[in-house]
Design brief:
The chain contains 13 helices and 17 strands. It is α+β, with helices and mostly antiparallel strands. It has three domains: 253 residues, P-loop containing nucleotide triphosphate hydrolases (Rossmann fold, 3-Layer(aba) Sandwich), CATH 3.40.50; 105 residues, Four Helix Bundle (Hemerythrin (Met), subunit A), CATH 1.20.120.330; 182 residues, Helix Hairpins. The strands form four sheets. Strands 2-1-4-5-6-7 form a six-stranded antiparallel sheet, covered by helices on one side. Helix 5 packs antiparallel against helix 11, helix 6 packs antiparallel against helix 11 and helix 7 packs antiparallel against helix 9.
């Protein structure tokens, strides 16, 4: 039960103190006096918010005012304790902000951790949450009859079916989370593992284990064979025999190569190669001398030719000068100053021409001589180059032959040493073979295991041991993987079973939800019909029904076989039916302590207004405390507490008769 409300700077109120009593509390006054603001202050005090109202609009809009306070005292319908709520808020840069909130229970301060914690504690003390309070307990102006055709979500919340729906959703989410892992379908993964992956890995594991056993047998066999390997003396003999035969083969190969090399030059032996080399050396020397002599002779010829050409050129120059003087009719020589006459110049010019002709012949002879020398020099040089190449080939041949000879001599010494060692080892082992026995190594290999065979066995053993170790590790890893897959299968099977259980629970919960809804609505409709009859002497309807699918309310008019939507009856009847439903809901929910109606007669015509007001006063038969806002001033005689709201000359809302 609400006992007291105090305001400061709340909406149109500068300050106000309102006391409420048990029974019918009427808040009356003219339009826009501030009646609804008292109800909004009550709701804000309880829950810290008012539906449909922007929070900053709750602060008084008087110039300079930036904060407001609300205090509310009520009795808890749950345990009868006295509860006091104090809220203070302010505007900071135009934004609404809670400044202080306190909660006292039976005079003792209760520590709250934020506004949500305060709202949760108020909900526990009242027994009703904000959504149920706003939909059932508090009917705002013009919205009393909304309950006749409500939103499904609102009624689900009022009937606490929302909780069951949330549980249903949680079960569905749990089912989906059970049947989906990292976006993969559990059933598909289970089928894939059981039908494909696990059998494949188990087959691989079986094959690996079989391979491991085979490798172990091979390793054991090789280890046993290695225990029967030959003695060090025999190993040494085999190694020396192999080396002896290898060196013998190399020696034979070198001898064949030497013979082939000599045959390519058509030389029998090293001595013949040396003699041929000496002859070529002398030939090269002789040719070099001839070339040098010709080069000197060529140089002399070139010098003689150059001299003759110079002499010829000078003569030709003088001849041209004399011709020019004769042609110019000059009287004196420009060089020596002597008189010039044609008689003197013509014999001189003719003599010069004869001399030029002789010199040209001499130049031609010298040129021909020089060309002959050059040709002969080229021939000798080619012959010299050829001789040098032949000499170089012979020299290279000699170097190769000498190298072969040196190698053959060295190998012969090695063969002699190896032969002595092999013979000694053969005698020490009692083997009746000589070192030069054809195919000695093969014969010994057939009779005794060779060192190569032992090394091959050892290499093979290491390889098998390595493979065995790898297969063992792979087998262990695959065994863990198979066990992991089996564990995963068990986990997935548990998930599948849990998912099936969640699905069955959802199905059962759906049945429970629908069953609870229908049962609750039948009981509420029956209770509402009884309340309706108690509020009016008229017997116009034989029953009320609430559609469990839509929550739409229907009434059955007396004398009519069919139903009629409650929204289709008269305005006064709609109000009474809606009021009856609210009272029935409160009764069913165990919330019979409080009902708040803001202008419940909104939209009712004047003819039915007084009748409806008289009927509204009867609600205290069903509710402990009713707070009704009206501006008609009627029905005051039935009220237990009258709260008058008015505007003072300064425009502030004031309260009279309630302080």
């Amino acid at each position: 039960m609400i006992e007291e409300l105090r305001l400061r700077n709340f909406e149109g109120f500068q300050s106000a103190r309102v006391r409420f009593t048990e029974g019918l509390n009427l808040i009356t006054g003219r339009n826009s006096a501030g009646k609804t603001a008292l109800l909004e202050a009550l709701v804000y005090a309880l829950y810290g918010v008012v539906s449909g109202v922007e929070s900053r609009m709750l602060v008084s809009r008087v110039s300079g005012v930036r904060e407001m306070e609300v205090y509310l005292r009520f009795r808890s319908p749950k345990n009868g304790s006295r509860v006091e709520v104090y809220r203070a808020a302010e505007l900071r840069k135009g934004r609404f902000s809670s400044r202080l909130s306190r909660l006292l229970v039976d005079g003792k301060e209760v520590q709250v951790e934020g506004l949500e914690d305060l709202r949760r504690r108020i909900t526990l003390l009242l027994g009703v949450g904000y959504r149920q309070f706003s939909w059932v307990v508090y009917a705002r102006q013009g919205r009393l009859t909304e309950i006749l055709e409500p939103r499904r979500s609102d009624m689900d919340a009022v009937l606490e079916i929302t909780l069951l729906r949330e549980l249903d959703q949680q079960l569905d989410q749990a089912r989906r989370s059970l049947l989906k892992v990292d976006g993969r379908d559990v059933s598909t993964e289970h089928h894939s593992i059981v039908s494909q992956l696990l059998p494949l890995q188990e087959k691989r594991l079986k094959e690996l284990r079989e391979e491991v056993e085979e490798l172990r047998e091979e390793v054991e066999n090789l280890e046993q064979r290695l225990e029967e390997t030959p003695t060090p003396a025999l190993e040494r003999l085999m190694a020396k025999v192999k080396e002896y035969e290898r060196v013998k083969a190399m020696q034979a190969g070198s001898e064949r190569s030497l013979r082939e090399l000599l045959s390519r030059y058509e030389i029998k032996d090293l001595e013949e190669a040396r003699r041929r080399g000496e002859r070529l050396r002398l030939e090269v020397l002789e040719l070099e001398d001839e070339v040098r002599a010709l080069e000197r002779e060529l140089e002399d010829a070139r010098r003689e030719e150059a001299e003759k050409r110079g002499e010829l050129e000078n003569l030709r120059k003088h001849h041209r000068t004399h011709l020019e003087l004769l042609a110019s009719n000059a009287s004196r020589c420009p060089t020596c100053g002597q008189p010039i006459t044609p008689e003197k110049m013509e014999p001189l010019i003719e003599g010069e021409e004869r001399e030029i002709q002789l010199l040209e012949e001499e130049v031609s002879e010298v040129k021909a001589k020089r060309a002959g020398i050059e040709q002969e020099l080229q021939r000798l040089r080619r012959k010299l180059e050829d001789a040098r190449r032949r000499r170089e080939r012979i020299r290279s041949l000699l170097e190769s032959v000498e190298q072969y000879s040196s190698t053959l001599e060295e190998r012969e010494r090695v063969l002699k040493s190896l032969r002595i060692e092999v013979e000694g080892l053969l005698r020490s082992l009692g083997v009746e073979y000589s070192a030069d026995e054809p195919g000695l190594f093969e014969k010994l290999s057939q009779r005794f295991p060779s060192p190569e065979q032992r090394r091959e066995l050892e290499r093979r053993l290491k390889e098998l041991q390595r493979r065995l170790e790898e297969r063992l590790k792979a087998s262990e890893a695959l065994e863990k993987e198979v066990e992991g897959l089996r564990s995963r299968v068990r986990e997935l099977e548990l998930r599948l079973k849990a998912g099936e259980l969640a699905e069955r629970l959802r199905d059962r919960l759906g049945e429970v939800i629908e069953g609870r809804r229908e049962k609750l609505l039948r009981a509420i409709a029956l209770k509402a019909a009884g309340i309706f009859r108690s509020l009016t002497d008229q017997r116009l309807y034989t029953g009320i029904r609430i559609d469990p699918e839509t929550y739409r309310v229907y009434v059955t008019p007396r004398g009519v076989s069919g139903e009629l939507p409650a929204t289709r009856v008269g305005g006064g009847h709609q109000t009474l039916i809606a009021l009856s439903l609210r009272l029935a809901l409160l009764s069913r929910l165990g919330l019979t302590g409080l009902l708040i109606l803001d202008e419940p007669t909104y939209g009712v015509d004047e003819e039915n207004l007084q009748l409806l007001l008289n009927q509204l006063t009867r609600i205290t038969r069903h509710i402990r405390q009713a707070i009704i806002v009206t501006h008609h001033g009627r029905g005051l005689e039935e009220a237990d507490n009258i709260i008058e709201v008015y505007k003072d000359p300064d425009g502030y809302s004031r309260v009279r008769g309630a302080a």
